[in-house]
Amino acid sequence: MGEGGLSAIGQDRVTELTDRLLDDLFAGLDPDDVESRLVLRRQVIDRIELDFSIDAAAFARDEALQAGPEPVTGWFRHECNMQFGTAVDRVNVGEQLAKLPESAAAVAMGEIGFAHLSVMARLVRDIDDAVLKNCFIEGDLLDKVKTFTPGRLWHYCVRLRHALNAEGVAAEQRISAEERWLRLAPMEDGSLSISGRLDSVGGAAFRAALEPLARPTGKEDDRCLQRRNADAAVELATLALDGGRLPHVASQRPHLQVTTTLETLCEQPGSPGAEMEFALPISSKTVQRIACDASVARVVFGPGSVVVDAGRARRVVTGATRRALNARDHLRQWPGCERTASQSSAHHLIHWIKGGATDLSNLILLCHRHHWMVHEGGWQLVRAKDERLFAVPPPWDFRYRTRAPDEVAAA
Fold first, then answer.
1. Phi-psi map region of 60: left, alpha, beta (phi>0 left; psi -120 to 50 alpha)
2. Residue 399 pLDDT more than 50?
């Protein structure tokens, strides 16, 4: 039915009428007045969306279509090139217009946008008719809508819907919490691809924990938000492990265990990569960073990989030394870094494996990112005669330039 109607009009005719409409609409406007053109285009689109929704609801009520092999939304997807969610929304708007006559008229007059009407239609859809008739006053809501963005209106409507149907909101949030999921997919290079979904409350808890760690570390921090978020997620996991409050596994608190040879730790040529659970073999640079502030145990193997001796694990930086270090370096030693002592690791200016002493004169506090930059990133920390610390960047090699997040995702 739809194909016959379109062929009778002709696609060329549709294009001609659209072009004529836009010419008439923009007549008299300054060619450089892009803002006015955008506003007028949006008003036309909103009006067309309103009429489309009316027809979509009538089309969806067709009993013959409802009895067909494919849902009505499938027709919209194929014939109107629409996404499923968009098609469902347009049908719902058309179905709820009888309950929102003033709002529909406001869209037609350009006083509010179609996006506002879509939010209001979802509100009245989820309210019982008796409650809607006795408690819902469209005019009062419409007065607020005219001063709200669609996003702010959605937030307001959730609060209003709770006032009118608290049980319904509670049920939706319960279902949303039960639909949480997180997929961890190891990649060939050892990196981890993460995708998932959290409900509103769970997402708020995650963001509240993540955002303090995702802030720029200082004015020289040029990382984009996505990269800061990724670094913050790693740092959040590290802080959780260091905090010792996670449930114990096999009578031990969860921790990162690195197994390395002395040659790898000393960065000797020809030494193998170190082993770490859930990761591919890691480099000497990473081993040295982790070993800067960790518990270290010696294990001696004899012929046939038989354990000859296993020493007790000893903390490199003891509790007393760490407390003194926190008191001295409470605002970090990296120039311009604004992280607190609790968000930092102890770093040996001369690594202990190379003879550096584990005392205050050879220790500084570095946040997770700057600690990584010194070891794996190739930066150097140089202390001047007046005890000031300077960060020296590595020689920049464009062959190894880091990729932006969208380039990584496309790889």
1. alpha
2. no
Q: What is the pLDDT of residues 20-61, one digit of tens each?
A: 888 888 888 888 889 998 999 999 999 999 999 999 999 988
For 119, the enclosing helix (H) or strand (E) is: helix 114-125
**CA-CA distance, 20 to 17, in Å (whole number)?**
5
- Tens of pLDDT, residue by residue over 322-374, are 889 888 887 557 888 878 887 888 999 899 988 999 988 889 999 888 999 99
Backbone φ and ψ for 123, nearest 5 degrees, come out as -65, -55
Concatenated DSSP letters of 124-164:
HHTS-HHHHHHH--HHHHHHHHTTS-HHHHHHHHHHHHHHH
Q: Beta partners for 192?
A: 186
Task: Name the token pair of 273.
Answer: 């990569």
pTM of the model: 0.73
Contact indicator for 366, 345 with CB cutoff of 8 Å? yes
In the structure, what pLDDT confidence band is assigned to residue 103 with cuts at 50, 70 and 90?
very high
3-state class percentages of the chain: helix first, strand second, coil last, to nearest 5:
55, 10, 35
Asked if residues 184 and 192 have their Cβ atoms less than 8 Å apart, the reply is yes
Residues 282 and 274: beta-carbon distance below 8 Å = yes
Whose tokens are 């038989």? That residue is 306
Nearest to 164 by CA among 200, 201, 133, 119: 133
The string of pLDDT tens digits covering residues 111-162 is 999 999 999 999 999 888 877 877 888 888 898 899 999 999 999 998 988 8
Q: Tell the residue number behind the tokens 């591919």, with chain if given.
A: 280
Residue 79: half-sphere exposure toward Cβ, Cα within 13 Å: 15
Bridge-based pairing of strands 380-383 and 389-392 is: antiparallel
Of 118, 125, 202, 104, the residue nearest 153 (C-alpha) = 118
Distance (Å) of CA 269 to CA 99, 219, 262, 264, 290:
77, 38, 12, 8, 20
Cα–Cα separations (whole angstroms), residue 300 to 294, 297, 392: 19, 10, 38
Distance CA 332, CA 365 (A): 6
Residue 345: its H or E element: strand 344-348
pLDDT at 397 over 70: no
Average pLDDT over residues 210-220: 88
